[in-house]
Design goal:
With 369 residues, the protein is α+β, with helices and mostly antiparallel strands. The chain has 4 domains: 78 residues, conserved putative lor/sdh protein from methanococcus maripaludis s2 fold (Beta Barrel); 95 residues, Efflux pump adaptor protein, beta barrel domain (Elongation Factor Tu (Ef-tu), domain 3), CATH 2.40.30; 58 residues, RNA polymerase II/Efflux pump adaptor protein, barrel-sandwich hybrid domain (OB fold (Dihydrolipoamide Acetyltransferase, E2P), Beta Barrel); 85 residues, no CATH class. It is built from 6 helices and 25 strands. Strands 3-14-17-16-15-18 form a 6-stranded antiparallel beta barrel. Strands 2, 19, 20, 21 and 24 form a 5-stranded antiparallel sheet that branches.
Length: 369
């Protein structure tokens, strides 16, 4: 009985050791990421902004009282915020006082008055001094009065014309800052951003508020280079169909921009589509599904459809690294044809994706089948 139990324990240990030895290593199949001609059908989320927008900056730094909030509709000239100018008002009052003093300043004037004692009177005073009838001090006073007198009048303070001009320039600058403390909307639109709102502070020469118009709206998206270049050709233009999916509504639009300036080595190119938003269904700053279709075909990166996995966060693939470990890569996909799916973003030509079913961990070691 003991011998049987011992044999059972040994067998369990051997089984456990075998499991542990194989833990963390799986055998997988991989496929290279390659290019293939695919239908030109783009279905991806795109960021949408207004075609016309304005960033408000201020020339004044200070605490702010806001008259609007993000999402509010505003009209051109409407007051959207006011900056506290208490410190500027005090500075202005001080400068105005200095200016008043400077403007009331009278320049010094120097003049000469004739002597009040003539030479005959001075001679008699000299004789009286020698006779002892007047003192030396009294004689000196008479002597001083026998000389012409220099008189200075006016003056006071320390200002001059240059000082007055400097103060006036400072007053003009402070007055302009006070006037700029009332911030108005430069155009009709929607407030889509308020910067430093948490601090309730305006900082001079820095963005303060962003206002975007209701219409038109522009959706921007990066797509594979060859697809973008095909869309830019005159032949493809009549066949291009553009839709923006907003809730349950498909809003038609027009492809208005393809960045053809990028070098051939750049794999993805920016394109833009423009939409009329008179019904105000599209909200600036949001992401919406964008469809761009054409009868043309374009060279796109493709992988087998089964290599694409999906969870609550979106689509992803497992990529085999050079040291046979697993990397997890988020991807944007396009159309599916003949068992392969086009890849808009997330992969490069020549990379290897895992097609084996199952779940793998980031960094997990695998063996290629």
């Amino acid at each position: 009985m003991k011998k049987l139990r011992l044999c059972s324990v040994v067998a369990i240990l051997i089984l456990v050791i075998g499991i542990v030895a194989g833990c963390g290593t799986s055998t997988v199949s991989v496929v290279d990421v390659t290019y293939k001609d695919m239908p030109l059908q783009i279905h991806n989320d795109a960021n949408v902004t207004a075609l016309n927008k304005a960033t408000i900056t201020t020339t004044v730094t200070g605490p702010v009282v806001y008259a609007v909030k993000v999402g509010d509709t505003v009209s051109q000239g409407q007051v959207v915020a006011t900056i506290d100018t208490s410190a500027l008002q005090q500075q202005l009052a001080s400068l105005q006082g200095q200016l008043s003093q400077a403007q009331s300043y009278t320049p010094e004037v120097t003049s000469t008055t004739p002597a009040v004692v003539d030479s005959a009177q001075l001679e008699r005073a000299r004789q009286m001094r020698e006779a002892g009838n007047i003192t030396e001090k009294e004689y000196n006073r008479i002597l001083e009065r026998s000389r012409p007198q220099v008189v200075t009048s006016g003056g006071g303070g320390g200002y001059n014309g240059a000082a007055v001009a400097t103060i006036e320039a400072q007053i003009a600058q402070v007055s302009a800052q006070i006037a700029a403390s009332t911030i108005t909307a430069p155009m009709n639109g929607v407030v889509t951003a308020i910067y430093n709102e948490d601090r309730q502070m305006a900082i001079a020469e820095r963005p303060f508020m962003l206002i975007q118009q209701h219409t038109p709206m522009v959706a921007s998206l990066s797509i594979p280079r060859d697809a973008a270049m095909k869309l830019a050709t005159p032949e493809a233009k009549p066949t291009i169909k553009v839709l923006l999916h907003v809730n349950d509504t498909d809003i038609p639009g027009e492809l208005t921009y393809v960045d053809t300036t990028q070098p051939d080595t750049v794999p993805s190119v920016l394109v833009k589509a423009t939409f009329n938003n008179e019904k105000n269904l599209i909200k600036a700053g949001e992401f919406y599904g964008l469809t761009i279709e054409s009868s043309a075909q374009a060279k796109m990166l493709v992988i087998p459809s089964e290599a694409v996995r999906e969870n609550a966060d979106g689509k992803f693939v497992y990529v085999l690294t050079s040291n046979n470990t697993v990397d997890v890569r988020v991807v944007e996909t396009g159309d599916t044809q003949d068992g392969v799916i086009s890849i808009m973003n997330g992969l490069n030509e020549g990379e290897k994706v895992i097609t084996t079913k199952g779940t793998f961990e980031l960094g997990q070691s695998v063996t290629v089948q």
